[in-house]
């Protein structure tokens, strides 16, 4: 039996207009470019699972974590000026969580291994910045401000040698949280 819950699927429905009006598009997996399905998206309903939505195609730009629920006017809620252009389903995970964060790019500088949430890396580790990481287990959200606020970035297992080369130049990641939602 897999830790990722491969048999479980998420489902999100996107609507062209606010309040679930206009044409809709159902999605049960990753979608790198929603423009072939709809020209705009201003509301959505997550029926099952968790998703990251992005304001640019190919999982780029601003990101927002969405769990089961209704988002009748997500643009006001998130402060976005543009609409959702791509989405990624976050697989269900029931294992341990482990991530190494590094002060500098290419895994340089101070290193700390995390196995639980951290609401402020400065307070906990006396670390001014996090510029690279290695996610060994689990799925995580990183936030630009302490206490899980500000812009966020979804991290799945893998090596992330340079956040600036990923398009996050000048951003500081100050808090991290495990994605542990029971969402199916």
UniProtKB/TrEMBL annotation:
<dbReference type="InterPro" id="IPR050252">
    <property type="entry name" value="Beta/Gamma-Crystallin"/>
</dbReference>
<comment type="function">
    <text>Crystallins are the dominant structural components of the vertebrate eye lens.</text>
</comment>
<dbReference type="Pfam" id="PF00030">
    <property type="entry name" value="Crystall"/>
</dbReference>
<dbReference type="GO" id="GO:0005212">
    <property type="term" value="F:structural constituent of eye lens"/>
</dbReference>
<dbReference type="GO" id="GO:0002088">
    <property type="term" value="P:lens development in camera-type eye"/>
</dbReference>
<comment type="similarity">
    <text>Belongs to the beta/gamma-crystallin family.</text>
</comment>
<feature type="domain" description="Beta/gamma crystallin 'Greek key'">
    <location>
        <begin position="138"/>
        <end position="180"/>
    </location>
</feature>
<protein>
    <submittedName>
        <fullName>Gamma-crystallin M2-like</fullName>
    </submittedName>
</protein>
<dbReference type="InterPro" id="IPR011024">
    <property type="entry name" value="G_crystallin-like"/>
</dbReference>
<feature type="domain" description="Beta/gamma crystallin 'Greek key'">
    <location>
        <begin position="10"/>
        <end position="48"/>
    </location>
</feature>
<keyword id="KW-0273">Eye lens protein</keyword>
<keyword id="KW-0677">Repeat</keyword>
<dbReference type="GO" id="GO:0007601">
    <property type="term" value="P:visual perception"/>
</dbReference>
<dbReference type="InterPro" id="IPR001064">
    <property type="entry name" value="Beta/gamma_crystallin"/>
</dbReference>
<feature type="domain" description="Beta/gamma crystallin 'Greek key'">
    <location>
        <begin position="49"/>
        <end position="91"/>
    </location>
</feature>
């Amino acid at each position: 039996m897999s830790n990722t819950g491969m048999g479980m699927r998420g489902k999100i429905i996107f609507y062209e207009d606010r309040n679930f009006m206009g044409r809709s598009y159902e999605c049960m997996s990753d979608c790198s470019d929603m423009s072939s399905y709809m020209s705009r998206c201003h509301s959505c309903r997550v029926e099952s699972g968790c998703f990251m939505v992005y304001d640019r195609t190919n999982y780029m730009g601003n990101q927002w974590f969405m769990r089961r629920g209704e988002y009748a006017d997500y643009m006001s809620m998130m402060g976005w000026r543009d609409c959702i252009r791509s989405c990624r389903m976050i697989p269900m995970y029931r294992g341990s969580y482990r991530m190494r964060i590094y002060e500098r790019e290419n895994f340089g500088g101070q290193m700390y291994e995390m196995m639980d949430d951290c609401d402020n890396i400065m307070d906990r580790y006396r670390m001014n910045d996090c510029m690279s990481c290695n996610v060994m287990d689990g799925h995580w959200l990183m936030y630009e401000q302490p206490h899980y606020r500000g812009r966020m970035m979804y991290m799945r297992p893998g090596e992330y040698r340079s956040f600036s080369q990923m398009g996050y130049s000048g951003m500081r990641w100050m808090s991290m949280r495990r994605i542990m939602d029971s969402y199916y």
